[in-house]
Amino acid sequence: MNWKSWIRQAHRWLSIAFTVTVIANFVARAVGDGTPPPWVTYSPLLPLAVLLFTGLYLFMLPYAARRRGGRRT
After folding, report:
1. Residue range 37-64: average pLDDT?
2. What is the CA radius of gyration of the chain?
C-alpha cells in the first residue's frame, strides 16, 4: 500500500469516526438532562482537524501531478 492510498483510506475512516462522534453528540444532547460533558461536545474536533489536513492533501494531488508533468485525470 503506497502513501497516497494510505492517506485516502485514513481519510475515509476518519470521516466515519467524525460522523459517529457527531451523532453521539446529538444523542447525548437529546437524551441528557442539559449540557453533555465537555469530552462529548469536543470529541468531533480531533477527527475534523485530521480530516482537514488529509482532505487538503488529497485535493492538491491532481494539481501537484499536473505541475510535475504527470498525466491529467
Report:
1. 93
2. 17
Q: Is the pLDDT of residue 72 over 70?
A: no
What is the mean pLDDT of the segment spanning 18-35? 90
What is the distance, to the nearest Å, from the Cα of residue 8 to the centroid of all Cα atoms in its chain? 10
Instruction: Give residue for cell 449540557.
Output: 35
Q: How many CB atoms lie within 10 A of CB 41?
A: 13
- Residue 64 region by backbone torsions, left for phi larger than 0, else alpha for psi between -120 and 50, else beta: alpha
State residue 25's pLDDT score. 92
Asked whether 33 and 17 are in contact (CB, 8 A), the reply is: no
CB-based contacts of 57: which residues, under 8 Å, 6+ apart? 7
